[in-house]
Write a structure and sequence with these properties.
The complex is a heterodimer of chains A (276) and B (901). With 276 residues, chain A is α+β, with helices and mostly antiparallel strands. Chain A contains nine helices and 14 strands. In chain A, 26% of the residues lie in helices and 26% in strands. The longest helix of chain B is centred in the middle third of the chain and has 24 residues. Classes of the chains: A alpha+beta (276), B alpha+beta (901). At the A-B interface, helix 4 and helix 9 of A face strand 4, helix 4, helix 8, helix 13 and helix 23 of B.
Amino acid sequence: MGDYLRPRDLDEALQALTRPCTVLAGGTDFYPARVGRLVTEDVLDIAGIAILRGISETPTGWRLGATTTWSELVEAELPPLFDGLKQAGREVGGRQIQNAGTLAGNLCNASPAADGVPALLALDAEIEIASFAGSRRLALAEFITGVRKTALLSGELVVAIHVPRPPHVARAGFLKLGARRYLVISIAMASAVIEVAEGGVAAARIAVGACSPVAQRLPALEAALVGAAFDGSLADRVEPTHLAPLSPIDDVRGSASYRGEAVLTLLRRLLSGLVS
Amino acid sequence: MKVAFTLNGTVAEWEGAPVTRLVAALRDDLGCTGTKIGCDAGDCGACTVLLDGRQVCSCLVAMGQVEGRTVETVEGLALPEMLAALQASFLAHGAAQCGICTPGMLIAAEELVRRTVRPTRAEVEDFLGGVLCRCTGYSKIVDAVMEVTSPVGEPDPAAGEAVGARLSRVDGIAKVTGRDAFGADAIPADALWIRVVRSPHARARFTLGDLGPLQKRLAAVLTAGDVPFNGFGIYPDIKDQPVLADGLVRYRGEAVVALVGARAEVLAIRDEEVPIVWAPEPPLFGVDAAIAPDAPLVQADRPRNLLLEGGVKRGDAGAAFADCAAVAEGVFETAFVEHAYIEPEAGWAERVGDRIEIHVTTQTPYMDRDEVANVMRLRPEAVRIVPTACGGGFGGKLDLSVQPLVGIAAWKLGRPVACVYTRPESMAASTKRHPARVAAKFGCDVDGKLVACDVRATFDTGAYASWGPTVANRVPVHAMGPYAVPNVRTWGEAFFTNGPPAGAFRGFGVPQAAIAHEAMMDELADAMGIDRLEFRHRNALRVGDTTATGQVLAHSAGLAQCLDALRPAWREAQEKAAAFNAKGGTHRRGVGVGCMWYGIGNTSMSNPSRMRIGLSPAGSLTLYNGAVDIGQGSNTIMVQIAADAVGLPASQFALVAGDTDLTTDAGKTSASRQTFVSGKAAEKAGQDLRQQILRLANAGPDACLSLEGAKLTVRDGAEVRTIDLATAGPLMGEGVFDPPTTPLDADGQGVPYATYAFAAQMAEVEVDIELGTVKVLRIVAAHDVGKAINPTLVEGQIQGGVAQGLGLALMEEYLPGRTENLHDYLIPTVGDVPEIECLLIEDREPLGPSGAKGVGEPGLVPTAPAILGAIHHATGVRARRVPLLPHRLREAIVQLKGKTP
């Protein structure tokens, strides 16, 4: 049986992380990976550290504490900018998972089908990382580096997710495609944040999940939307060539070609939904 | 570490490793076994508890995180001596069937009803979406939560009025309070534990290295050499599956070595530490590989990898097609389907002198007894099977699982030994529904009357025979569907592969065949320009018709009545779908109908049931019932039937169920046979007891009985006689019933079943044309059950069957090594199953108790055909392969569009 540390403050946690251990927060990925066997590794439980939890507004945007649960996010009072992330939160597992699973845990688990990643990419989220030596910030796109891989170095801990305040009024949304209603791993998903100024698209950030090893932004589509009227014609601008960053695969949930086609439909519907 | 917290309102202290799962602490250390483990991975919700008022999976919470917090479990819901409103509502609505998900469901619902006492259906779905139920189809659970504030009255029928009443389950209070003890709930604290090491290869030879070091660490390391007779199987002459593989494995997940020791010790040993040297060989996957000319044999004594073949022949189908006005043909394929009962296999054994006692979750205590005796080389009388509550079976708990392992280990070590499968282990090791390829050809005349059919059903029976012969025998009898067809040729065949053993699964192959024959009905109806429901009505088997096996249906063939009952909903749904589709858009609606018939009991084989009812000198009235209730409610209906047969109120009955030492053999809980066969035996037992009482009182047949303590009063008209049971001595009524059947000859002619259930279901679906997703909007299910002994339980069977049929049609596909958990293998959630309206048709079967037949399997059979027919109606796509996953449907829609410019 390994050690189990449950520090109350961050410094203590970072001190503990100077030797190898597995970080535990909501437990929703930790325990499923250990079915039918004893847990023998050293565990650092960060769920009791108050400063890592909760949502606050900052001068430049919002800070989402690493161990904020999906339910806390969904229930938080936040501007429409966060509608996509909230919709994603409602699609994470079932309610039990939403009550326990944490925002940062979803990122650190780095599943290609992580429900939170496309919405956070579309929010231009930055990851605040701390270690005993200091702290750094990384764009989310640089944080997740591959299937089950992140840029987190040994001794480092995700402390918070920062969402910048966009210059314009923003609308946001998220769509998930799965083969059943609850508790389902995505076949594909898409999220968008559209900043609107003077009836037109001032900026667009769009990301797709479960169609590549790491969820991807779609810069060509974003560029095609900027300057367009914010109306029903927005969806018409989605083109197959915009999906170039994606590399969908065949698996038990769907075929690669289906994913590619379904994403176009999701994107068009997502944009139509935002303007209606 | 010590953890102090509040558990169900009182202070609790727990000490142990803080990384211990909350559910493990609750169950193993704090006595709260009401919280169940279905997966240990957050996929099923059976372990749902409230943590600071919010529902969480207690399998995902570390005890270290519980310090100072509040935990509420099912044990905390009830008030002293009184059920909570939610529990009472679950009980009254029949929302608990097997009861394994019930504590989790109650807790999830509790979080909701604390926020709002009158929740909407959408809110109920959102709050219950994380708890899987495999029995109920969710309908009655949703009703119970939505109507929690409007209590339903519970009937307490008087003598003679129990049959037909919506009696609450006799074991219902135990289920809604979490007190019902399932296979893993009452394991002795001093029991040793077994962890089975299983094959990671589908086909391999292996040698075992030096087990000495492991044997030193553990109480025992069991291998093939420790099994006295290393073969089991449900047929007396086919014992082809080893308890522990002997140098050769034939499927991924096959048991190889059993580690026996203290629980923590066996769990700490990784598979890699067990010295097994593997020599993998190329596996045979699928029937095509198995029948290839140069295919290696899966079992050395089975040439061509053939398990069994046979068919039914009547008239001259080949010639008759020539004269048909329309002929339809198609080939349909289905996948391995997992039972996915929420309770994994579990049990424990104890040696008592020269006997072995096994407490286990099972569907078939007597067959378990005989199988264990055979494997252990003991007399059957030396084996006692004590069934625990069974958390779902559906056919998957008819085969041995933990029984021989715990039996052998406990016998050898003289200590109690337990084994509880993990979810991935349960899925890898257990049997599956047979994948089928059904080639069907049907023809009709100008009037739309069926003339001929030719069906060939080819099954992948996996590595071992299991129930393969049953499937291959049953399907040819049913493959023409519930229709009068004069010229029939059907064929069933099953081949061994290196897939998981395909065994019994609700319907024994008939659901696969129904997908084919119902698609043919739709195509012929469309070809002839006849409404699909009317086409079926025209061809429905009716009383007086002769079946393809030459059996004349003398009674109780209610398919036409089922279709009549569906007709109003069918017409309304067609109009609604047409109006919806006229609006255009990306979604299209469709309506489909599916029919089925199902022979009750074993195919052309004796399957008797024996029941006893005792009346003791103290006046206690007990039904000794060997029929295992796996959630379907046989405990309750046996009491209802027995009560009316005796003429005393159901509420006066005590029940002894399942235990092979205390009951008589009532056969397996399978083949939809318990209501019909064991119910009849219970009725006869009741009549026998009543006759004895009437003789003692010298009273006529219409006398009324009443029982008060040891005083039994018999009122015959104006005459009142009192029997003092203390002096009259114990009375015992006994009843035996074996449905009359005859063997089938080489052409499949004979009487395979004494009676048949019939059903017709209608599905309304909405298809997202662009994404290929399907939302089932409504199911209306009309079932001829002969007589509904307990309408609530009958509806529950139908609704649960429908949910499994929906899964079969749209999402369920077991792929060894890839979908061995409940997040990659999908079963319907509460959000996937629509409202299911049940229409009960009672075309009395004179052989059955009060006219009843069976309903366990029939609920599932017509559902997939109805849904697939509705999808065709909506899109023009005829599904050739299920599950019709979104990508398969979308690809078919695109292909169809390409064909029609």
